Amino acid sequence: MNFPLPRPVRRGSHLAVIAPAGPFNTDSFGKGIAWLSQRYEVSHRSDIFSQSGYLAGDDARRLTELNEAILDPDIDAIVCARGGFGATRLLSGVDLHSIRAANKMIVGFSDITALHALWAAAGVRSVHAPMVAALGNASEIIREKWIAALENPSGPLGWCLQSLNDTAVAPVNGILSGGNLTVLSALIGTPYCSPLTGRILFLEDVGERPYRVDRVLTTMSQAGWFEGITGLLIGAFTEGEAGADGVTIDEVLASHFADAAFPVLTGLCAGHIDDNEPLPFGAELRIEGGKVSVVEEIGDPSRFT
Question: Three-class SS of residue 29?
Answer without folding.
Answer: helix
